[in-house]
Design brief:
15 helices; six-stranded mixed β-sheet; 362 residues; 36% helix
Length: 362
């Protein structure tokens, strides 16, 4: 499967002599050195790919460069160096007019602040992107109403933005992006301004929509819990650089450095981990022929804990062919819930490293 979106060694430098600054960064200079000379390196050598239908999350603290990176993906900011390719087309080589065409039809953006027109109805706000495209009024209203219905706003089409709650206004912003039927959605801290309960509701809404629409989405956030809940893969940024890219489990279980590990300390691991991410793989065994309760590699962590509480031994993890692929001792579960990283240990084919029996027969 070919990638839908590719970022290839992107740099963005603001200030004096940006090209010279890029050359210095490639030679090992850091941001502080550039700032002393009047240049600010917002994004440094960022590369990643996004597959069709994937939610790719970019997360980092304020000032890490994530929003600048997002704006380079649709040409709102021109990269100082590097390329952005969308469906194989080099967006950085397009003229301003060609970029506007791409943004109006193929790439939609959902902002943190709803950016609704107060003098337009909910329907007209949702239809705005189609109006820019020149779609006839009847068609754009039909498509806007369909998008509003998808976002749970059927019946609110004739309302005004100030009659809606913050969460409902953000749904209108999402409906506006969906109405254009764009292939790529860029979402910049789209839920960050919402109250926690509304924010979670919007996350649920996005995940539910994605099951049907299967859009390619790049989502920006500073919240790791949100990143891990939404992202098929996550890129963690620090000081303009991407320091790790991987699944939620990769980042939680195998952080690239202390900076990434510090983000995971307060994460609810039970919502992310599965049996495959916590099991001890250094085991040997054939088909399980016992009547004991076992787990599959994709068994959620919370369910795994429940199984462990019901059996007097380490939990055996079996693949779809009923082959033993790992075991999960109780202390491993406790370790992952605590501050430990749960580094895999070793065990023989019938006992874990603490001596617990494994109820699997070879």
């Amino acid at each position: 499967m070919s990638s839908r979106l590719e970022a290839d060694h992107l740099y963005k430098v603001f200030g004096r002599r940006p090209q010279e600054a890029v050359a210095r960064l490639r030679d090992g200079a850091d941001r502080a050195e550039l700032r002393a000379d009047g240049a600010t390196a917002a994004v440094i050598d960022a590369s990643f790919t996004v597959d069709p239908g994937e939610i790719f999350v970019v997360m980092g603290l304020s000032g890490s460069g994530k929003s600048t990176l997002l704006r380079m993906l649709n040409g709102l900011l021109e990269p100082t160096a590097g390329q952005v390719r969308f469906d194989g087309q080099d967006l950085t080589a397009l003229s301003a007019r060609e970029l506007r065409q791409v943004r109006s039809k193929k790439i939609s953006m959902v902002f943190q602040h709803f950016a609704l027109f107060p003098h337009r109805s909910v329907r007209d706000n949702a239809a705005y992107g189609l109006e820019v495209q020149g779609v006839p009024r009847a068609e754009r209203e039909r498509r806007a109403d369909e998008a509003l219905a998808l976002c749970g706003l059927a019946g609110w089409e004739k309302s005004w933005p100030d009659e809606l709650s913050g969460g409902m206004q953000q749904r209108v912003g999402l409906a506006r992006a969906l109405a254009t039927d764009a292939d790529l959605l860029l979402m910049d801290e789209s839920f960050s301004a919402l109250d926690p309960l509304i924010r979670r509701d919007m996350q649920d809404q996005l995940l539910e929509l994605q099951k049907t629409l299967k859009k390619t989405i790049v989502f920006i956030t500073h919240d790791l819990n949100e990143a891990m809940r939404l992202g098929d893969r996550i890129a963690v940024m620090r000081d303009g650089r991407i320091v790790q890219t991987g699944t939620a489990e990769d980042i939680l279980v195998r952080p690239a450095d202390d900076y990434v590990a510090s983000f995971t300390q307060d994460v609810d691991r039970s919502r992310v981990l599965t049996a495959a991410s916590v099991m001890d793989r250094d085991v040997r065994g054939d088909e399980a022929d016992c009547d004991c309760e076992t787990a599959a590699p994709d068994t959620p962590f919370t369910e795994l804990c429940a199984i462990s509480a019901r059996v007097p031994h380490a939990v055996a993890v079996l693949d779809e062919d009923r082959e033993l692929v790992g075991v999960v001792p109780r202390q491993r579960l406790v370790g992952f819930l605590g501050d430990e990283q749960g580094t895999p240990g070793t065990c023989d084919n019938r006992r874990d490293k603490g001596g617990e029996k494994v109820a699997v027969h070879a």
